[in-house]
Amino acid sequence: MEKTWRWFGQKDKIKLNMLRQIGVEGIVSALHDIPNGQVWQLDAIQEYKQYIESHGLRWSVVESLPVSEAIKYGGEDRDSLIENYIQSLENLGKAGINTVCYNFMPVLDWARTDLFYQWEDGASSLYFDKAKFAYFEIHILKREGAENDYKAEILQKVEELKNTMTEEDNNDLIDSIIVKTQGFVNGNIKEGDLNPVEKFNNLLALYHGIDKNQLRENMKYFLEKIMPVCEQWNIQMCVHPDDPPFALLGLPRIVTNEEDIDWFLNAVDNPHNGLTFCAGSLSAGLQNDVPKLAQKYASRTKFVHLRSTNIFENGDFIEATHLSGRGKLIDVIRVFEKENPSLPMRVDHGRLLTDDVDKGYHPGYSFLGRMLALGQIEGVMATIQNELA
Ligand code: DNO
After folding, report:
1. Which CATH number fits the domain that encloses residue 254?
2. Is 355 a catalytic residue?
3. Which atom from ligand 1 is nearest to the alpha carbon of 187?
4. For ligand 1, atom 1, which residue shows the shortest CA distance?
5. How many folded domains does the chain comprise?
6. Structural domain boundaries enclosing 88
7. pLDDT tens digits, 362-371
């Protein structure tokens, strides 16, 4: 597979010359300064592409071309937003960029409660604490009926948290769940936004009455509209699985498991409608056998994210090292090296290691942590390629 790296543009603390030295071949990026829903103009795409190329790298994948909320919930302006999306795809096609990752998750792009969960060895990683998330929904958002979504043990822990969480803890939790993990991926709420909780609740309200079937229909509608431009410019669309792959905030989820993946691939059965195989996101669902899914969907996979997690009995999950955990990356890499070896692959997330601390990297996107993981993955890839030769 092609070794790619997610880079957040010239403001990223990690510079392109650092990436060439560690064997990165392609860049995964987006025009992060363009507000969600606006057209990506051809000259802006070309300028960005040339900047990447001037460092001896290529712009391999767009992650993400964000899908506006109104397209997801089916708002009045969805057709004009889809028109803008089509225009952006056409411009990407003209510039020769053919792989586009997106997601169809309502409101939240991804969810974690702890951004610096401490490990015994002194490193830290991202973590999802189910009880803390429940506390956030029930006592911070005050979402009606949220307590009905949780079992008694979790509700018991929520009560304990209610007695121990300080105002500062609450603000940290808000920051982790709806600000720090969102703004940098072109999500809805950015650092410095006022009243994030109110803003977030307003966004959730847009989905009242939208169930799983309706969200699926809206995804189908979107895909059907964009397929012609994808065919014309040979663009591979690849949806990212929901992260985590289980229900949150009373919102529907439609890319969480085998049944969901079968559904959207069959609903629009076109080779340009594909999957981003995110081993990490899929691994955080007990229902998923990750290498088995890789085998089944290898031919419809257009882009691979290598990451792993471990799930605890209480429903929490932690981001594991890349060679451990439920992601079973050695087996996943074997599948893709055999079935679809030209795919772009990026190491997803990494722990915060030694000098990574306080560098201001985006959550999950450390330098040393990801570099270590890339070295490990490269070793596995080389071993498997050697076996297959
Ligand atoms: C988080 C990422 C997501 C992902 C988008 C794709 O680290 O996996 O932000 O890029 O959901 O659209």
Report:
1. 3.20.20.150
2. no
3. 9
4. 110
5. 1
6. 2-110+206-388
7. 999 999 999 9
